[in-house]
Amino acid sequence: MKIQIINGPNLNLLGVREKSIYGDSSFETYLAGLKQRYPQHQIDYYQSNVEGELINKLHEVGFSFDGIVMNAGAYTHTSVAIADAIAGINTPVVEVHISNVYKREEFRHVSMLAKNCKGVIAGFGMDSYRLAIESLTV
User: Fold this and answer.
1) In what order do the strands lie in the sheet with 67-71?
2) 116: annotated binding-site residue?
3) CA distances (Å), 89 to each of 10, 63, 132, in order?
4) Which of 7, 33, 122, 128 could serve as a FRET partner for 76 with CA atoms 20 to 30 Å apart?
5) 77 is annotated as contributing to ligand binding
6) CA-only gyration radius of the chain, Å
7) In chain numbering, where does the site feature Transition state stabilizer fall (predicted)?
């Protein structure tokens, strides 16, 4: 299986930003563990702080990969364009969040993307990504 993980804005700072919310591990460290856990799958990783680049990546892999795990960061709550990109591709997308967005600010309780996704996983720390991969591989 080919799985693309896409991380949005500020997720390049995992391990150094708001450690009480996001933990103290970089995503690259976590990704190495995921690849070891799932050697039978090709797991690719992409991160951008730019909305249009995230859309371009969705378009690029959305017809050739078997699954996409996407943490769009704050764009989750604001981007009709990313929601439309997800609706326009064939590959199933699982929306993930490291934190429990429902324990945070009210604006984070609304996802523009969720209606176009296979499912949403939130609040399990970095393990949210593993749970999303599990949901794609069953």
Assistant:
1) 42-47, 2-7, 67-71, 93-97, 119-122
2) no
3) 25, 6, 18
4) 33
5) yes
6) 14
7) 17
Average pLDDT on 56-83 reads: 97
| Per annotation, catalytic residue among 22, 30, 75, 129 | 22
CB of 44 closer than 8 Å to CB of 1: no
CATH number at residue 98: 3.40.50.9100
pLDDT of residue 20: 63
How far apart are the C-alpha atoms of 81 and 105, rounded to whole Å? Answer: 23
Residue 78 amino acid letter: T
pLDDT band at 133 (very low <50, low <70, confident <90, very high): very high
Chain mean pLDDT for the chain? 92
59 is catalytic: no
Q: Which residue type sits at 118?
A: K
- 78, HSE (Cβ side, Cα atoms, 13 Å): 7
Note every long-range contact of 20-28, with CB atoms under 8 Å and residues 24 or more positions apart, other chains counting: 21/98, 21/99, 22/98, 22/99, 23/98, 23/125, 23/126, 25/126, 27/126
* Overall domain count for the chain: 1
Three-class DSSP category at 93:
strand
Q: Is 129 designated active site?
A: no
Nearest-angstrom CA–CA distance, 128 and 24: 15
